[in-house]
Amino acid sequence: MESSVSRRKFLRLSSLAGAGLALGFYFPAAAKAATIINGTDAAALGVELNSWIFIDPSGKVTLMCHRAEMGQGVYQSLAQIIAEELEVNLDEVNIQFAKGDKKYGNQVTGGSSTVSGSYKNLLKLGATAREMLIAAAAAKWSVPASECYAEGGKVIHKPTGNKYHYGELAEAASKLEAPKEVKLKPVSEYKLVRKPLPRQDLKMKTNGTAVFGLDFEVPGMLYAQVERSPRWHGVVKSFNEAEVLQVPGVKKVVKVKMSVHDKYREGLAVVADNLWSAMKGRKALKVVWDDSGFEHVNSADILKRQEEALKTKQGISAKKQGDPDAVLAKATKKLDLIYQTPYQAHAAMEPLNCVAHYHGDKIEIWGPIQAPDWVQDHISKQMNVPREKVIVNMTFLGGGFGRKAFTDYPHEAVLISKEIGAPVQVVWSREDDMTQGPFRPGVSYRCEAALTNGAIDAVRIKMAGQDLSNWMRPDKKSANWGTTEGFADPYFKTIQNISFTDIPFETPIPPLWWRSVYASTNGFAYESFMDELALAAGKDPMAFRRQYLDDERMHKLIDKLVEVSGWNTRKKKGGYGVAIVESFGSTVGQVVKVSKPAGGKLKVDKVWAVIDCGWYVNPDTIRAQVEGAIVMALGAATQHAMTFKDGKAELTNFHNYPVTRISETPPIEVHIMDNDANAGGVGEPGLPPLAPALANAIFDLTGKRIRKLPINLATV
Question: CB–CB of 225/354 below 8 Å?
């Protein structure tokens, strides 16, 4: 990462007239929206400016990224948005990560929300800076601002061709009041947005200059490896401390209790002056654990309990319209089916790690962190330190998928630093990362429907799986918020009688959001069920969806999906399957084509994907995200599933929890719908449709219906 402007200097300069133009947002307590102000105004108001744009006298432009970059492209996307209206070339700007700070608003990188949640404000911010620079230039020339325009980091006077670069105008612009209203460009005039520009972080990631969590060091830093109970609620009874301290380089062995949801996980941290010694010391540990007082779960038992709960328990209503119970009670043609999805590990290429330094009156944290503001809140409460004294610095992430938005591993690092009185880097092994969780919960579904003359009369769905927010709701009386996630909104308008019910289900296994959260499991059940409804109704699966997804944007997406996949020209039993899932403000439709050579295993021949995400930034980034989501979804659908035996995770590394290889990846064709609707998410919506589309394709080819994941392609 470039760091030509330090944050301290950034904020100091932003409060000094004449030092440059600093522009950011001010959130007055009673205001409904943010106000754009410059550094001079911030100083007058007595507030610390959350500078998003800084232009120094040399003309150097620094743009801030307030969210985590874990491969999804926000490092460039946010800058690309600002640069579009600011009229600067993207390869001439400096991008920096913001620290965790409530002045930046929500900094949680999750829910595919970064662009969709900030693009309108950032466009306005860039346009505001541009107009202030134009006004400053017009004043210098004593000409009307209407005779001036901005381009390539300069303001140009149309009649004369005279130019000022932004650095020459920064001082004067910094003294101007930000205009209340600015005119934004129409999409047709974009020069950067919607263009496939190469990402700024790629060079750093290929030449080794990008700083990931494992790369970060501070003076005097020690290293720690932590041995945790293989069963999540186990506690230490005894261990061989004296023997471990004999390992060269090992300094200390300390007991640590990090918070995981509403409980604490106990472990033993082996602290050493280098990572290798910490690893050797940990291997020398001999720990006796007390694993009593909680259930030692088995995967097979979990599935059976979920099935039984779906059949016997009433549950909590999540959404209901009409009277599906009455319709189903009288129906003569019904479907009543069970779908099941497994637990999943996050398995990011970069295992968890974190550097922490407990100073007593303040705490500093560095690492691959998806949610710096959540970490600030959590550490402040756990360590009884004021929030503003918890300083969270983001590095690049080697994948996150939701795991690195959790607060347990920074908390553990802070506890160890406090205990040893020094900064420490805690590094999780691949086995730690895989087996300790938290995990995407496995979920079972009971899907019922009534049909008359090829039309749906009622749908009733029950869901049994761990609630990701249960630990935050002690009363546990409200339904799981994710029960309807992934079920496209137009279905609620075209199906008169629908109910969704959450069947509360708990195990000792710690659950956590996983890429696309519940849409990843719901999508499989709901879109597999929609295919079975189409078959029962005697309708083509694509036409059946068109009938019930009665919406203009949906119809355009379906038209595109039909066109690119050749759906209407496919042969009978040709091995084609479709699924359409709406999640995180976007809709993705996918068609999967499969075949099965004589005597061979089933092969995924191709995947066509069409995404409607509304307003978007970089088409190459979107295609990369959808492709990556499909590859991850293919692994989850056909290869990996976390299983448990006697209360322990059974799968420990990529040898038994395989990721999809290049040789196993089919050709993927991604198409983006072009419209000016509000921006939706991109990083997650590409994942949910793959599993149901694949299962539906397998049925089309073989007549075998898959209702439980993962799918063994060798035995289908």
Answer: no
Torsion of Cα atoms, 447 then 449 then 455 then 457, to 10°: -130
Neighbouring-strand partners of residue 394: 367
Does pTM surpass 0.90? yes
Cα separation, 109 vs 218, whole angstroms: 26
Q: Among candidates 648, 624, 272, which has minimal Cα distance to 439?
A: 648
First to last CA, the chain: 48
| Cα 166 to the center of its chain, rounded Å | 36
Instruction: Give the model confidence (pLDDT) of 566-594 as tens digits.
Output: 999 999 999 999 999 999 999 999 999 99
Domain topology for 299-343+440-702: Aldehyde Oxidoreductase; domain 4 (3.30.365)
Whole-number Å distance between alpha carbons of 346 and 348: 6
| Domains 213-293+352-427 and 299-343+440-702 belong to one CATH topology | yes
Is 647 in contact with 297 (CB distance < 8 Å)? yes
CATH domain 213-293+352-427 topology: Aldehyde Oxidoreductase; domain 4 (3.30.365)
The H or E element spanning position 364 is: strand 363-367
Looking at the domain covering 7-207, what would its CATH class be? alpha beta
Whether the Cβ atoms of residue 638 and residue 649 lie closer than 8 Å to each other: no
CA distance 286 to 649: 20
Average pLDDT (627-643) is 97
Given a contact cutoff of 8 angstroms between Cβ atoms, the answer to whether 109 and 70 are in contact is: yes
Q: What is the DSSP letter of 645?
A: E
DSSP E strands, 202-303: 222-228, 235-239, 250-260, 263-272, 287-290
Question: Please, what is the angle between helix 690-702 and helix 519-537, to 10°?
Answer: 30
φ, ψ for residue 42 (rounded to 5)? Answer: -60, -40
User: What is the rounded CA–CA span in Å between residue 547 and residue 339?
Assistant: 24
For residue 225, give the nearest of 51, 430, 83 by alpha carbon: 430
Q: What is the pLDDT of residue 30?
A: 56
* Nearest of 630, 209, 617, 271 to residue 415 by alpha carbon: 271
Cβ–Cβ under 8 Å, residues 526 and 639: no
d(CA 334, CA 448): 7
Alpha-carbon torsion angle 643, 648, 650, 653, nearest 10? 110
Joined together, the tokens standing for residue 517 give 């959260």
| Nearest of 707, 695, 711, 699 to residue 338 by alpha carbon | 707
- Determine the longest span between alpha carbons in the chain, in angstroms: 83
Domain residue ranges in the chain = 7-207, 213-293+352-427, 299-343+440-702
pLDDT the model gives residue 419: 97
Q: CB 203: neighbour CB atoms within 10 A? A: 11
User: Facing residues of 271 across strands?
Assistant: 224, 252
DSSP state of 146: G
**Angle (CA) 500 337 687, round 5°:** 70
370 Cβ partners below 8 Å, 6+ apart?
A: 68, 70, 108, 109, 110, 397, 400, 402, 404, 405
* pLDDT tens-place string over residues 409-456: 999 999 999 999 999 999 999 999 999 999 999 999 999 999 999 999
- Measured CA to CA, the distance from residue 408 to residue 436 in angstroms comes to 11
- In contact, 462 and 499? CB cutoff 8 Å: no
CB count, 10 Å around CB of 249? 17
| Mean pLDDT (whole number) for 85-99 | 91
Residue 542 φ then ψ, to 5°: -70, -45
pLDDT in tens, 261-281: 989 999 999 999 999 999 999
- In the block, tokens 């809140």 appear at 377
Whose structure tokens read 């709901």? 526
Beta 154-157 vs 455-465: how paired, if at all? unpaired
